[in-house]
Design goal:
The complex is a heterodimer of chains A (589) and B (196).
Chain A (H helix, E strand, L loop, with lengths): L1 E6 H11 L4 E4 L7 H8 L6 E4 L3 H13 L3 E7 H17 L4 E7 L13 H8 L3 E2 L4 H18 L3 E3 L3 H4 L1 E7 L15 H4 L3 H24 L4 E3 L4 E6 H10 L5 E5 L1 E2 L3 H8 L4 E5 L5 H9 L4 E3 L14 H10 L29 H13 L30 H9 L7 E5 H17 L4 E7 L28 H7 L4 E5 L4 H12 L4 E7 L3 H6 L7 E3 L9 H4 L5 E4 L2 E4 L8 H5 L5 E3 L4
Parallel strand pairs in A: 2-3, 2-4, 4-5, 5-7, 6-7, 10-11, 10-13, 13-14, 15-16, 16-18, 17-18
Antiparallel strand pairs in A: 1-8, 6-12, 9-11, 19-22, 20-21
Chain B lengths: L4 E8 L4 H14 L4 E5 L9 E8 L12 E6 L2 H6 L4 E10 L7 H4 L7 H8 L3 E5 L1 H8 L5 H9 L7 H11 L5 H19 L1
Parallel strand pairs in B: 1-4, 4-5, 5-6
Antiparallel strand pairs in B: 1-3, 2-3
Helix pairs in contact in B: 1-7, 5-6, 5-8, 6-8
The chains are: A alpha/beta (589), B alpha/beta (196).
Chain lengths: 589, 196
């Protein structure tokens, strides 16, 4: 056992190496991405690992590996589980012969997400076990138990850490790395793997019959624990349990829930020994609803009577407020303080030299008051530039565009989608738009990488997760194969060139695709691309401010003149915008 | 149970707050102390305001409640003010006297705060102001600014300077060890001057 200071996701990845895992797949998504990023860069690797094109593809691959007797891990963020849910629901019926752990990382407060859905509800829905860690150490230990649990009951196991586990750090005790030696073998058994009605009805019954033994085993594993003190109790789950434990007085009973489904008899035994039970959990009232079912005469406080919020993430201060309101604490140890008001915000922005800013600028100049459906990626930040009117989920740019077009909207409709998102779930929407005759323009913002989540490769990049060269797909050929006649590739740094192509697309009917292709500035920097920096000739600059309106963080105003700071990556777009010609490459006059 | 010593490091995505918090975490391991931390990852990092929480001796959650931080280390003047409510009464603030104006000032035409205005607003705290950019430059690389800040703040931490220097050696790229060790020592000297 050795002690390390690790990110939650690093500890989770290490636990996979200890288990050991034999097969890994997933699609990047904050806060889950680092698990595969760690596993794919591990030098002495005997397991198979891939970044898949989407979560459904990832889960079906992992499921097949687990059918072959392997220990398989499949990672995604919570909303990825929606994409994979078709496979999930029936994989509970077929079960697995090896171990299948599905890591679905939740994001209470939607730090980097489009919603705050709770993966515990999916586990409940699919009737598979769910492990919900309250600390990094527990996350680490749970992974090893999750594989064993999956094998013992022949069920996929959902592992559900939240952002505050994945992206927090701590001292962690870890075990030794074990080399994977298993080799998968598929044993034919149509009654298990072919879910025709006659088979699936029996499989459903078997799934239900597994439940009581699963509940017992989860209590034995020690992730659901309790301590009896007085007549008042607090029940908490996940990271909220850590916040509660720091503040809880010694006279109050405490139950921690880290594993689902919860054994009702065990829960009932605890709850009924108390007059008052306060349930503190993030997001859905998963625990609270079960507590209410067994409460008897105990007064249950929680979300349903306004003590605990349904939305957002809990924090030490919000838990202190809840404990005080419920009378568990006599005074709030963290008196409210207020931040300084009216400071200029510093939200995340597109990098200096980002291709997306240039592409959005050209789009806005040509399409003006058009409708701008968009998608999920760094380019969602185009909202600040007024060129993102909708985002809902991965791939929903082209579909929303065609839907608005068919709804009768008469303005131009031009949507934006990144290369990785297009390959994830965009292609079907494109095919559908062409097939059904929509009039839309689609701009694929092609930076050849899945940038927002940390630069993971995708089929457009030219390398696999392990760095093995793999022929990049042709976005142009995919679009043409979907039936698009107008497909043009442009360099978004060439503003005039891109605007000309956009005008051409605007004048045509049907589905038009423009591929705006340029390397992500972060990958370019890492690859050693040097374009030289730009500077402002202060004598020529009139201080009109057109350049700072562009929103590039490399351009500032100083003494009513523009100035280019050290963030400049040399894209040269500002020089094309400046009406006075005051911007030029350094070293030029 | 000992109360944890809670440090909040704030700055702008890309300034090296995560490396700084890793140095503190590894220094804690060297002294056999528990440590918990939390930080900003993902899209929120892209040039946005970022925070790292580090709880030395922490055994529970990784987050520090507002009004409870013992030490606030800020890599930017404006961010120091933005997070100043996290500091407990009597806590210490170590701040780089350098201001990067957010682009919102230009794109949303908001009033730009001034260096003098921010320094005046921060003067109600026990404040150590230093020019980390200049010191990092002198140490050999502007990128060592985060280590300069840790050096300056090391006077206010319950960790031995030797543990911090060891952690710096372990975590920075091997070629930059001499620069970063010098950055730490120069930062520590600058921090000593303003605490007296």
């Amino acid at each position: 056992m050795e002690q390390y200071y690790l990110l939650g996701n690093e500890a989770i990845a290490h636990a996979c190496l200890e288990s050991p895992v034999d097969f890994v797949s997933g699609y990047p998504g904050t806060p889950s991405s680092e698990v595969i990023d760690v596993l794919r860069s591990h030098s002495d690797r005997a397991y198979y690992i891939e970044w898949s094109v989407n979560e459904k593809v990832a889960l079906e691959n992992a499921l097949a590996a687990a059918w072959c007797g392997l220990r398989a891990l499949c990672t995604m963020k919570h909303v990825g589980l929606n994409v994979a849910s078709d496979a999930l629901m029936t994989s509970a019926y077929t079960g697995v012969t090896g171990g299948l752990v599905i890591m679905s990382a939740d994001d209470p407060f939607a730090h980097s997400s489009q919603n705050e859905q709770d993966s515990r509800c999916y586990a409940h829905f699919a009737r598979v076990p769910c492990l919900d860690p309250s600390t990094i150490q527990e996350a680490h230990n749970m992974i090893r138990d999750a594989f064993a649990l999956s094998e013992e009951f022949g069920l996929p196991v959902i592992f559900r850490p939240t952002t505050r586990i994945c992206h927090s750090k701590g001292d962690v005790e870890m075990g030794d790395i074990v080399q994977s030696t298993r080799r998968g073998e598929f044993k034919k058994d149509p009654r298990q793997y072919v879910v025709i009605p006659a088979h699936t009805r029996i499989l459903h019954k078997k799934l239900n019959e597994k439940q009581p033994a699963v509940k017992k085993r989860l209590v034995e594993l020690g992730y659901n624990t309790c301590t009896l003190k007085g007549k008042k109790a607090v029940i908490a789950s996940g990271i909220a349990a850590s916040y509660v434990q720091e503040l809880l007085p010694d006279t109050i009973s405490f139950m921690k829930i880290g594993a689902y489904p919860i054994d009702e008899a065990w829960l009932s035994g605890f709850v009924q020994k108390h007059d008052m039970v306060l349930v503190i959990e993030e997001l859905a009232p998963e625990v609270e609803e079960q507590v209410l079912q067994v409460a008897g005469t105990a007064n249950v406080l929680g979300k349903k009577n306004g003590y605990v919020p349904y939305e957002g993430e809990l924090s030490p201060q919000s838990v202190a407020v809840i404990l005080t309101k419920a009378g568990v604490l006599s005074a709030n140890p963290y008196p409210a303080v207020s931040p300084v008001q009216n400071l200029p915000p510093r939200p995340p922005i597109l990098c200096a030299g980002c291709l997306h800013r240039a592409a959005f600028y050209a789009i806005k100049r040509v399409f003006k008051d058009a409708i701008y459906p968009s998608d999920i990626g760094c380019y969602t930040l185009g909202l600040q530039l007024g060129v993102v009117d909708t985002t809902i989920c991965m791939g929903a740019s082209i579909t929303v565009a065609s839907g608005i077009a068919h709804a009768g909207e008469t303005r131009d409709i031009i949507c934006t989608v990144g290369d990785s998102t297009f390959l994830h779930t965009g292609i079907q929407g494109l095919m559908n738009a062409v097939y059904n005759g929509a009039d839309i323009t689609v701009v694929i913002l092609d930076n050849r990488i899945t940038a927002m989540t940390g630069h993971q490769p995708n089929p457009n990049t030219g390398v696999t997760a392990c760095g093995i060269v793999s022929p990049p797909v042709s976005l142009d050929a995919i679009c043409r194969a979907c039936g698009v006649a107008f497909v043009e590739t442009v360099d978004p740094y060439d503003i005039t060139g891109m605007m000309n192509v956009l005008r051409d697309a605007q004048s045509r009917k049907g589905v038009k695709v423009i591929i705006a292709k340029q390397q992500c500035v972060i990958s370019a920097r890492r690859a050693g691309v040097k374009r030289g920096k730009y500077r402002v000739d202060a004598e020529v600059c009139t201080g009109c401010g057109i350049c700072v309106q562009f929103g590039c963080p490399a351009i500032e105003m100083e003494d009513e003149k523009a100035r280019i700071n050290e963030l400049c990556s040399g894209c040269g777009v500002c020089a094309q915008l400046c009406p006075s010609g005051a911007m030029m490459r350094e070293g030029k006059r | 149970m000992m109360k944890s010593f809670d440090i909040l490091i704030v700055g702008i995505g890309g300034q090296g707050t995560i490396l700084a918090s890793n140095i503190l975490g590894v220094a804690c391991l060297r002294e056999n102390r528990h440590v918990k931390g939390a930080e900003t990852h993902g899209m929120a990092q892209r040039g946005g305001s970022v925070e790292s929480h580090i709880r030395i001796g922490g055994e529970f959650g990784p987050l520090i409640a507002p009004g409870q931080a013992d030490l606030l280390i800020s890599f930017d003047l404006l961010e120091a003010l933005r997070y100043s409510h996290y500091l407990r009464q009597g806590g210490t603030m170590v701040v780089n006297r350098h201001l990067v104006l957010p682009t919102s000032v230009y794109t949303q035409k908001m009033e730009a705060p001034t260096d003098e205005g921010i320094v005046a607003a921060l003067s109600q705290y026990r404040l150590c102001l230093l020019d980390a950019d200049r010191i990092a430059q002198e140490a050999g690389s502007p990128l060592s600014q985060n280590v300069v800040m840790l050096g300056a703040a090391s006077h206010a931490m319950p960790l031995k300077p030797a543990s911090l220097v060891d952690a710096v050696r372990q975590l920075v790229p091997p070629k930059t060890v001499p620069i970063n060790v010098r950055a730490f020592e120069m930062g520590r000297e600058a921090g000593g001057a303003c605490s007296s």
